[in-house]
Fold these 3 entries.
Entry 1:
Amino acid sequence: MNKDRILVTGGVGYIGSHTVVELQKAGYPVVIIDNLSNSNRDVLDGIERITGIRPDFVEADCTDMEALKALFAKYPDIRGIINFAASKAVGESVQKPILYYRNNLNTLMNLLDLMPTHGVKGIVFSSSCTVYGEPDVNPVTEQSPIKTATSPYGNTKQICEEIITDVIRSGAPIKSVILRYFNPVGAHPSAEIGELPNGVPQNLLPYLTQTAIGIRKELSVFGDDYNTPDGSCIRDYIDVVDLAKAHVIAVERMLTEKSESSIEIFNLGTGNGLSVLQLINAFESATGVKVPHKIVGRREGDIEKVWANPAHANNVLGWTADTPIEDTMRNAWAWQLKLRERGIM
Ligand code: NAD
Ligand code: WQD
């Protein structure tokens, strides 16, 4: 049976591109909309090399209602949406809050507005563990309290979750699966696609691999005086391909009436917390490559420790993040080496 077409907003980006690969492998026809504000169209070549299929691509901005209408007119067979398109740099969002609210909220509202009239049944939304702030108890479940956001970026995720809830409560004939990602890391094992941060990376793993290859002199470990076993912060690092696979299951569930209610929320993490120093060790032992690093002061706004209880996703979606961290580290390293080979960095 032919599968329904899926619109992937932000599908040229980091998590979106890995998800397009898994969707195509599962037989879904895909159309991507991306304004390339934080990505490069060469990613489409990588997707094609992995899957043998070049996804349809529309270069446009999701905040542009007319562009979206034209897209739905061109692809009347779209039945599901995965909405990755958003601005995502926490620090930048503090400097440019309007940009973040405008981009992240308008993108979602435009899609929700157009879905019913174009026969689109459901939307998967990329949310974040950032909604839990500094949790009182770890691991966090979907019922853990939502804390006041500490950045405009984090606030957009909370507001977007509320917008989805209100729209569905109003009786809109659509479903939604909200996925709260923990810390996505790694790259496709083929090293054809991966993370391509703009400028100096703010996130740990890209900074680490850029240090390992010599682009950065040393990695700063932000604090070793936290209340954790080795004093550095703890996160739940989830392999990006595992994460991508959860989206395929979520889409399937949404479109085949399996979902128990119109809105479902899932934590996507491994359930294992790793400290910054443990992650550096995991990288070094998996690759044999040393990472020059030094301990510096705490980074303002950092959460001390957060990791997921992924039982709900494990039980209901039948999904687990099972890629060993060493494999994830090797894939991240292979991707960094590929960027050098291609002369990108
Ligand atoms: P990314 O920046 O690599 O991908 C986002 C893509 O969306 C980019 O290709 C960008 O060009 C595009 N885009 C942005 N605004 C757009 C617009 N208005 N119209 C069309 N395209 C637009 O980011 P990512 O890491 O792949 O994140 C994907 C989603 O997951 C985002 O919503 C992000 O907030 C969320 N998320 C990411 C993380 C993480 O650590 N990477 C964690 C939790 C949640
Ligand atoms: C991880 C750990 C740092 C860089 C951010 C967003 C969050 C979510 C994921 C989207 C922390 C430490 C980092 C470095 C370091 N994104 N670190 N040296 O802060 O968990 O979350 O990305 O929703 O919203 O806030 O991720 O990768 O920046 O940091 O020691 O050079 O690595 O202190 O403990 P974070 P991160």
Entry 2:
Amino acid sequence: MTAVKMGSSIRPCLLLLALVVLVHGAARSRAANNRFPDDFLFGAATAAYQVEGGWNEDGKGENIWDHMLHEHPDYSKDHQNGDVADDSYHRYKEDVRILKEMGMNHYRFSISWARIMPTGEANNINQAGIDYYNNLINELLDNGILPVVTMYHWDLPQWLQDLGGWTNPIMADYFEDYARVLYENFGDRVKWWITFNEPLSFVSGYAHAGPFTQAPAISKPGVGDYLATHHLLIAHARAYHLYDEQYRTKQQGKVTITLNTDWHEPLTNSTEDIAAADRARQFSFGMFAHPIFSTEGDYPAIVRELVDKKSKAEGRTRSRLPVFSKEMVEYIRGTYDYFGLNYYSSKLVTSGVTGENPSRERDAEVVISIDPSWPSSPVTSWLQVVPWGFRKLITWVHENYNAPAILITENGYSDDGSLEDTDRINYFKSHFTELLKAVYEDGANVIGHTAWSVIDNMEWTSGYTEKFGVYYVNFTDPARPRIPKASSQFLKEIIQTREIPQD
Ligand code: PNW
């Protein structure tokens, strides 16, 4: 009796205690899952050609985007170019002010090679260009914002393009000279370097010509883009080793490359589709990542095998994809201090034959599609909103390349420029959520996120028709005022609370 009595009075107490512990635990793990690590970096990005303008001011040389869009205005959708863009060349203090307003930890911007070396050569330095970037860097540091600097965001000096651009192996020498000028002039204050932005995107300028193609718009698919790939990988390694040998001890910074890809999901779970999705990853991403970030180095085996096989069948004396010597494989392998990763969207993959003959698309033997149920950007045809693809890509990089420190160097959404940009807020929110799942559930080491973009800007061959900014810019107003969209307030709150709001 007594025991029963005692039991019946103790049991509710124990139950209550258990409940309290449970609820507390759930709240804690919920908090942990939507809370960013304490040292997580929040930033936003732009690129020189897309925002600076001042295309021929104070001694700047012509680059391949100036050249292409001046020669062929119809290559961009609205026949516009980057001659003025956001006028950041004169209004960079405005950019820094709004970054500070949002509480950003870092600003990722790029240096226009032709602004500081008009022909691309190191014997011809334009001091006004050096001054511009010194002013921008100092303004950022005065406001407590870390500069993350991309050396090459697609704007090659035209003088170097006239020598063949990235199809010419000599480019590695010129790029090393350029990197030296950057380390010498800015390395005392810049600690985060990115050699190249999205090689996958810009090598396509050596594969396709015509409206809406990348500069320099040269039509040599399956040859020009592979030569460019080969030479930029060597150029990247040259810039990395130069830093290692001559600057690292004194400047104590980090150097890497930024790679992008859509996440490639197999169309079905058939063995064939799974293999096709892997080929798509290797041809779009592994081709650049494997030589630098893998344990073995060199191009992925499947890429080597397929391109060699097809080149032979085409009766060529050598593969369309150049071969690295053993020494060069070793020279390129491991040339990173962190991983720069851009993610926007995902695609479905099955096996099949598409693309010109020859071409990267055809070499990969894949057919790419989208799920029609995925929400899409109203203005950017390739941008479907697939947040889970973000987590899968991060985790895939984590698992395939030795768990590197990953800085998300771009991620963002485009629309027609509305100030109440709820879809952009939802995009960021869902992508932050998946990013934290990659961190807490998959163990990925993601050290920061960089929103693309700070301000609406020149979206390459889409001109000003696709707006990625968290600040609106009216491109018919000569003063180019930066006007906050709702998403800038959203990012500001995330940065302040370091949590994803759960409402
Ligand atoms: C990136 N795709 O380009 C660039 O780094 C930025 O300069 C650009 O403004 C931004 O993303 C938005 O487009 C991409 O077709 C271009 O998947 C095309 C694709 C992805 C990124």
Entry 3:
Amino acid sequence: MCGIFAYYGPKTNAGKILVQGLKSLEYRGYDSWGIACKNDSDIAIYKRTGKIGDITSLPKEICGQTTIAIGHSRWATHGGVTRENAHPHSTEDNEVVLIHNGIFENYLEVKKQLIKREHKFKSETDTEVIAHLIQENLDKEGLEESVRKAILKIEGRYAIVVICKKENKIIAARRGSPLIVGVGKNKEFYIASDIPAFLKYTNKVMYLDNNQMVVLSDAKAKFYELTNKKEIKKRIVEITWNPESAEKGEYSHFMIKEIMEQKETLYRVLNQDDKIIKRAAGMINKAVGTYFIGCGTAGKVCLTGEYIFSEIAHKHINSTFGSEFPAHHHFITNKTLIVGVSQSGETADTLEAIEIAKEKKAKVLSIVNVETSSMAQMSNMVVPTKCGPEKAVASTKVTTAQLGVITLLAYACAGRLNDGKTLLLETAGKINDMLNPRYEEHISKLAQKLQNFESMYIIGRGSNYPMALESAIKLQEVSYIHAEGFAGGELKHGPIALIQKGTPCIVLCANDENKKAILSNAMEVKARGGYIIGVSPINEDVFDYWIRVPDVSTASPIVNIIPVQILAYKLALLRKNNPDMPRNLAKSVTVK
Ligand code: F6R
């Protein structure tokens, strides 16, 4: 959460570069934003609440002659959404100015000590405390050493970027939260939480690893270990994302663009080298106990994985949310395999679960979209989902790609990788046919019927039960309608009491052994007045509204979630919500 972007180089319009780049990081947080620009001997700071503004409204000292600048887009953790709490933060005289992503867990303790030493604070944030900590040593030790010493006092996960009035340099450091250095032409450098911020200028990057710092000065980038200041040589890596893939193109929102990209994302999953899938499957087959771990939507994918593996590979997999994993660590041994599932590869709860497992010497396999992420770096092996950047807060294309990877792994574990590939190839083709304007229009009509309801329910059985849970997440986060998913068989044990005349209930129905039972559950809801929306290959009598999905046997979770993604998007538009930036959320949750 929170987007960081900094520029160091010969261009004199650093302020403008930052504002444009920050817009592409708004998905990481969009409560408030700010930039700081260094001029000869001063630092100008500009902060605002709300979404990132227009470049033309920026004051002269921000968009004028600046070659060193830092910027931030915030998702509030400590302190409300106010201009004072927006980043950059600084010491009283703007001597030290910094931006921060993460949580400084022991900041209150440190703040108390600083107050005793007469430091005065302007905001409620943990970040401002870091600026004061740095300032304490600045005159004696210079910026680099003061940043290093201050950071060693911080507990928690962080990424910070610091400038000061007296030195023409930028210092950045990280532990847990992401930071990537972009290497531009003519000795210019970018530092950002994510690549799209600078992709327009360069696709050459150097990775700052955990517990490392980078110093940009004298037209060079030098990397050091934080603990002993040992210099580290870094390789320049060329990344393959093209700038267009990080833009909306002809679409009005990233969410619908990414939903439509599902016409091709399964093909990209299939284009993996078989060796990768076979090696990963080998790790699962060899392990004594496998845990799939993810959060939110990725957590629902992990639960779907339990069903897919049971059915295809006849294998027991455990799954849990990253935040719940600490309660399971007693079972972990050096023979356990942890499979981290994540789009960003930066989700703090999942990373922490992996750290716990690694302490117990468990092996780690990750299924990630951002191949350069912290999770990928922490893993013994990575299976990428290869979807390109996913920018809408609500995950769509990566969800189905993760399901695709897990399906392939299950078939490979059963020694039937080719059957898995044939199934996914067929599914990819059918998704391609399904995602046409008429299909969208049919779902738009349903959205019009549902837009004023206060609650809706989704039911599924077997591998479509986790997809009912995922459907609820999609509907909640962008439509703000109360939505809940249940296992069809569980309704009669309580939730059916919620059904009244007209209550919408989406039924995820695959043409499989659960079909009869889920249709009986739909009948039970209908008998109590519920309005039944069937997502199914066949139009059944019980449905009041039918959304056709292809019949793809064990790949049904992949196709069944797609119409619900479209419905959530259409409801968001009708209810005048911004589907790309739902309230209170951020794309990458880098805090616990
Ligand atoms: C919901 C959504 C989130 C993420 C969750 C984990 O649409 O996208 O629930 O799935 O925050 O994020 P990653 O996959 O980046 O670990």
